[in-house]
Amino acid sequence: MSVSVALEAALSVAHPGGRGRAIAALAPRLPAERARRAFNAALALDSGHGRSEAVAGLAPHLPEDLLPAAAEAARRDSSTQAAVAVAAAAREQRSAYWDGFRADTLADLARASHGAARSGRGELIGYLPTMLGAAPVGTDPAAVAAATVDALVDVLRWWP
Q1: What is the Cα–Cα distance from 34 to 41, expressed in whole angstroms?
Q2: pTM, whole model, 2 decimals?
């Protein structure tokens, strides 16, 4: 089965959650133009969970210009899984977008996840290495350690 046929089949799945899973499963095999199409279809899903799963699967394969939209979708859905995938993709690309994304995400993390019952303390703590372990080259290790401690304290404040 060609990738085009497989993508059409994935996009025709009736259940939004199943469609999101199908898009995520195909993501590593999609060429750039098909990844864009799959991403647009993922954003149109009316299931936050399905959308998050699709964005998380697609993130490592998205071009840099789609990463801001992927990050916004992750924030809108309060999806730590998708946010981690987008952060890792941005970090891997060492894109110009990365530094702004990192700062915005650390600032937004409390707001996006604070009210989300599905995000627990452990999930957020698991997210921190992705964000804080990607300090720009040459950053003082003491500054990274201080930022990590500050972020952990913030998480502990959010979930007493």
Answers
A1: 10
A2: 0.64
